[in-house]
Amino acid sequence: MSYTVAALYRFATLADPDAIAADLRARCVDLGTCGTLIVAREGINGTVAGSADAVATLVAHIRTLPGCADLDVKYSAANSAPFARMKVKVKPEIVTLGVGDLDPASQAGTHLDPAAWNTLIADPDTILIDTRNAYEVAIGTFEGAIDPETRAFRDFPGWFDDFAQNLRDQGRTPKIAMFCTGGIRCEKSTALVKARGFDDVYHLKGGILRYLEEMPESESRWQGDCYVFDERVAVGHGLKLGDYSTCRACGLPYPNDAEHMCAADGSGVWPHRG
Asked: I want to staple 184 with a disulfide (CB 3.0 to 4.6 A). Which of 9, 66, 246, 249 is the partner?
């Protein structure tokens, strides 16, 4: 069976996430999908897989939720089930940053499509920041991007506050471009950066996945592969399957043609050694 994979999110005000999650669980069982959906008062986030019809039906339903008509969805394909089962969770945030009252729906930076993104990050006065975690950055990133070397997204605010102070000490208020896998972390991180007093802030609409899908490789500024949070592990240009596996002990990705020595506490990035 061929699987359609839909990575989706939307920041929107959902008054009763528990009721929405209960309804989604029942629908996903009926549709036979697998994956994970996270529901919170601030919106919905997740990746689901199943038959093309099942995924289309589920996405259409999610678009009927309050504020979700413009749900951001990125589609890809898998030859086998990319998730073992279906989970629908209710959480305080759909992506955990832990800084309180940010409203990404109204405060996020300016979205740029892949072509405009290339122009922006080619400007030497633009500061380019990868908002993902160190193990993700290790297998691919944009040329010239700063790696905050975070282990979790909740570590990003502390890193950025130190980085911002350095910019202020230098008297700099540069253009800041930020990116992540599918766009959701950038909605929050750009809202954070703007709340910290930076106004010229941009992020890649649809994230790396849309960029790799739409940007011809000959014009791309991306280097390496993109880590994805499912059994495919990584994808490249055209969303073609990368050649990576995930260590079952520490959870970190490693190239299939490289020696893997596991740090079971997950403290390293590839090549990570015990």
From this structure: 9
Angle CA 60–64–66, to nearest 5: 145
Per cent of the chain over pLDDT 70 is 94
Coil, strand or helix: which one is 163?
helix
pLDDT tens per residue, range 158-217: 999 999 999 999 999 899 999 999 888 999 999 999 999 999 999 999 899 999 999 999
Q: Dig out the tokens for 234 from the structure.
A: 């990584």
Residues, the chain:
274
3-state percent helix, strand, coil for the chain, nearest multiple of 5:
30, 25, 45
Tell me if 36 sits within 8 A of 100, measured CB to CB.
Answer: no
List all residues 6 or more positions away from 248 whose beta carbon is below 8 Å from its beta carbon.
none
| Per-residue model confidence as pLDDT tens digits over 13-67 | 999 999 999 999 999 999 999 999 999 999 999 999 999 999 999 999 999 999 9
Gap between the Cα atoms of 187 and 108, Å rounded: 5
Task: Kindly state the DSSP code that residue 146 receives in the 8-state scheme.
Answer: B
From the candidates 180, 186, 226, 250, which is the catalytic residue? Answer: 180
Residue 94 in tokens: 């759909």
Mark whether 180 is an active-site residue.
Answer: yes
**Which residue type is seen at 185?**
R
Three-class secondary structure of residue 118 per DSSP: helix
Dihedral through CA 155, CA 88, CA 240, CA 231, nearest 10? Answer: 80
Cut 0.90: pTM above it: no
